[in-house]
Structures are given as structure tokens and as C-alpha cells.
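Hi X.,

You mentioned you wanted examples for the new student's onboarding notes, showing what a folding record looks like when two proteins sit in one file. Here is a clean example. The first protein comes first, with its sequence line followed by its C-alpha cells.
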Amino acid sequence: QDIDMNDTIVCDDDYKVIEAVNENECNESTIAYTDNDELLGDSTIYFDASASTDGDGSKSKPYKVFKWNRISSKSTVYFANGEYTLDNKKSLYSSFQSLKFVGQSKENTIFTSNFDNGNEITVFDNVKFTVSDMTLNGFHLYNSYGTIDATNVIFQNEIQTGSGGAIYSYGSAG
């Protein structure tokens, strides 16, 4: 049975799938959500702050608004040029494994934190967080035995009041 791209199908009791072509496509590369609408599994996710509506995270219908519950372990998240705001602080524990944030350009892809005391993203226990080609405005990244790889990133207005600067690293995974 063919499924409309806006339909939701249930693959098993643990997760539902959006963007499946048919019921036989319940596999690791499909975008899967829990009953609480939290994303599961490996995925590639797209955001575009200038999108006319908040889509489904696909390349053709990107999300407009950033929310952590749209991000899963081993995700690669692409951000088109625009301004995004962090909705919550996030701790990436070993069950998260890895996360990549990739902006369109370091000058025009701007991710802002409005929290007062830093540690917007904390990386623990062998997790690898990669960020590239964007501006992190008001961010403080904290590393505790994980790995943070920042390439072609502008850190501005960093307001950490404790230890470290834009990135504080306590121990390393390797």
C-alpha cells in the first residue's frame, strides 16, 4: 500500500514513521518518531529559518524552528542561512553517540543562545559533537571526556561566567 508523504504509519509499538513510501520501509534510514514525537535513529535533518512553514525536516520541506526533540543520535543537521535560537540546553550522553551541525556559511548561519550562564551544549563520555560553517552567538560548549570539533565557526558574545571561554574541555575521549 502506498502512503502519502504526510501520513503516519506505525512500524511497531515503539515508533511511528513519517516519509515512508510504503509500510515495508520501516528501516534505519527512515525518519522515525516515538509516541512523544521525539526523533529516533540515524538521520539527516534540514532547517531553513526562511521557510514559509515549519516542515517535516526533509530537504524539500525543512523545519523552520529549531527544537531539540527533532534531533536524534547520529544525526547530521543542515542549517540554511538564517537565524536560529536554541530552545533548551542539551547534554549529549554516551547513548547519543554523535551529532553534526552544518551551516550554509559561517557569516550568515547564526545560532543564538539566550541563556545567562553558558553550557548550552555539554558533551559527555565519548560523544562526538561536530559544528561547522556557522556563527554561535552567546554559546558556551562544555566537553567532559567527549570530542568537540569546530571548523569554520565564529564564536561571538560568549558570556560564560565560570571556567573556559567559548569551549571548555575537561578531559578528552582519546
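Then the second protein repeats the pattern, sequence line and then C-alpha cells:
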Amino acid sequence: VAVVPADDPAGSSPVGPDVEPVVTFSEAVDRASAVAGLALVAADGPPVAVQVEIERDGFDARLRPAVGLMPERRYEVRVNSTVTDLAGNPLGQPFVASFRVRDLTPPVVALLPPIGASVDGDAWSAVEGTALTLRAAVSSNDPLSQVAFQVDGVTLPGAPLVDEPSGEYRLDWT
């Protein structure tokens, strides 16, 4: 019996705090040995209480954490070499896979007054045809894959430029 490699073996893609890791085996495993031989451990802390459920006729073992996992923390799924197949053959060697739990806090976006506009409190105005630089300050715990500006429901063309230290995005628009 062996553990089948995951699609993301390095655990580089973060997962949500409600993740239920699944270990897939090359053949059906003995339920009792899998329950005793699987563990979920915080990389810098103690084991996490889990319920191990055997699925797909013994080929999969799902680890259901008793509590939600902590954001921005790495965890390891550990498979002990004492896990056996139905014939009693042990896993050749221990297996460890890790993953990171992402922070699900949504980004905070604040629209800033455009450069090139007249600003009066929360209202701004510009002369038609005047070039403006639209601005938004964005704070996020995870990298953003896309930022876009919309006016009246229409996404403006062009990719906003970001000022990394301040988190301010800018888009020139006429």
C-alpha cells in the first residue's frame, strides 16, 4: 500500500479553515489501522482532534477536524507507516503533506479622491474630457489576483498600477 501523491504536493495553494484533508491510498486500507495511523498537526503546535472517515471502499481517508483551523497557519497531515492494506501489508514509509490555511478576511477598499477632479467632501466633479487618475486604497491579507475600476457598472479598460507600500491602486482615465 502507498499514498497517492496530491495535485498540490508542496501545499503551496492555501485552503479555507473548514478544509477536510483527504489521503488517497493505492489500495484499500484497514479502517482501524488508518484511524490509528493518521494525524493532523499544527506545524508549530499540538495535534488537532480529528475524526477519520474511510471512504471509497477504503481507498480514501478523510480527516474531519473537530474545530475550524486557524488562518495563516501551516498544518501537516501525517500518515504513520503502521497503516496497512486489507491483507495486513504496511505502508512502506511514513508520509507527510503540509498546507497553509488562508485568511478569509475580505479586503478593505477605500475610494480616494481622483487626481484631476474638484473635491468637495465626499463629492467630486470633473470637466468632461479631463484626464483623471482614479484611486483606491486596498488592504488585504492575501495577494489580490485582480483589481478593476467600474463606472456605472462598466469595467474601465486598463490594468490599475499598484503602489506596493501604500496599497494604493491607480488608473488613468479620460
